[in-house]
Amino acid sequence: MAVKSDECVLSAVDLTREFIVHKIRPGLFGAIRGLLGGREKKRVLAVDRISFSVGKGEIVGLIGPNGAGKSTTIKMASGILKPSSGSIRTFGLDPFQERIAVARRYGVVFGQRSQLWWSLSARETFLALAEVYELEPREARQETAYLIEALGLGDFLDTPVRQLSLGQRVRCDIAAALIHRPEFLFLDEPTVGLDVTAKAQVRSYIEHFNRDRGVSALLTSHDMVDVERLCSRVLVIDNGRFLYEGPLEPLRDRFAPERQLVLDLEESVEGLELRTAEVIGVDGLRVEIRFDSRACSAMDVLGEVAANHTVVDFSVKELPIDEVIARLYQDGTDAREGR
Description:
Alpha-Beta Plaits, single chain, 339 residues, four-stranded antiparallel β-sheet
């Protein structure tokens, strides 16, 4: 989905990055040849002509298996790597050529790597980062106070980072990424290793800053709950190419159209047969029904049952989104519209 250029924070056109990998033959002879410059070279295409954009105030998920090209894409977007061909613009600037100007306008949260100083307290780290970004003292104080309150850091603000729990450290990392009021965040596995409660807290913090300040983000995560909760749309990448770009729901409809309707009835039934769906289980007053969402809706099935039986309660179950994505990988075809 294209975003208008004046509303675009990040955009890429035919973005490509290749690496040259040297292979050394096994054995002593192979090692000697390698030392003498006789190593075999192999061209590896990590990112292959991808095009995408992220609009102002938008959170987009970049998902794919390990080695799919996610990290390489983020490194090019943040100016760490130079593309082999194609173009990428962050805030309308070339992130590699104008790295410092671009870096002042984005923040980074790495769930598996911290940008905090382990021997310093969180407060001291924020002061140091304010100096790095050359913030005015008054601005630094105001921003620090805002982040302390928004993220609930007061109870452990003066504790050395090495003594913080993982959940506390991640909250401090989010604050560190936002200390200079960036317009954009790169979120790389921000909830990895956290328990269910801490994951939910981190998601709510990200939603808060997106809503309160309009901060855009590119999120990579293997936790599909992160993606479902935070992202308006997703980019699914595999072997350096996009397989899908768009909202999650059409992807679910295409690769996992089956739904399960669970009904609690007032009285038990036997031999229930439906025109719109298939009864797959009856346990006392509970009936489980499977239907194809492309052929009918849950309300269609519910209406057919309710015409002859009293329904006390019902719920609809869908295939977990991580299994939907797995089906897309197995299919291996480009699922974008018109492809």
